[in-house]
Amino acid sequence: MIKYTLVCDKGHDFESWFADSAAFDKQAKRKLVTCPHCGSAKVEKAIMAPRLATSKKGARPIEAPSEAPAATPAPAAAAPVPSTPAPVAMLSPQEREFRTKLKELRDHLTKNAENVGGKFPEQARKMHYGEIEHRSIYGEATPEDAKALAEEGIEFHPLPVLPEDRN
Ligand SMILES: [Zn+2]
């Protein structure tokens, strides 16, 4: 059995059960499916908005606290001031998708790169000057460090930070 939300040509919506989707098609074609409000046989399946799984309990993957990914501040970015309210946003479905992609990217980076923590500027510099071998690393850099690295022509990127990680 399958439950469909249906809508008639006058805009009434109602729910009805069918054996399967083919059964609905057959009955609708024969005008056997009628609106309980106005009796119209011109009914079709209502477009349902996909339900987002945000309210699902325990759906969030558990992250080990010791692996809390640190963001590398961009040279131009100001240091966050603790007393400043955190930026908030209402996300459209497209933005949610984008954010999911960002999370994937960040998860990929943090899985495939070594967390060097506060040693990031030192490690990045050593790599840049050929003292140690190039590898993927991530870690923390103060705005001063980031500025200095940028001035030395050392290329690095801020890790995408997701609002839900700020806790
Ligand atoms: Zn109707």
Task: Give a brief rundown of this model.
The chain is an alpha+beta fold. It is built from four helices and five strands. It binds zinc ion.
- How many helices? 4
Q: Helix and strand string, N-terminal first?
A: EEHEHEHEH
Helix content: 25-40%
What hetero molecules are in the model? zinc ion
Number of strands: 5
Radius of gyration: 27 Å
Q: Any idea what the shape is?
A: rod-shaped
Overview of the structural elements:
The protein has 167 residues and is of the alpha+beta class. 28% of the residues lie in helices and 14% in strands. It contains 4 helices and 5 strands, in the order E-E-H-E-H-E-H-E-H. The chain has helices at residues 21-29, 93-112, 120-128, 143-151, and strands at 2-8, 13-18, 43-45, 114-117, 137-139. Strand 4, helix 3 (120-128) and strand 5 (137-139) form a beta-alpha-beta unit. The radius of gyration is 27 Å and the shape is rod-shaped.
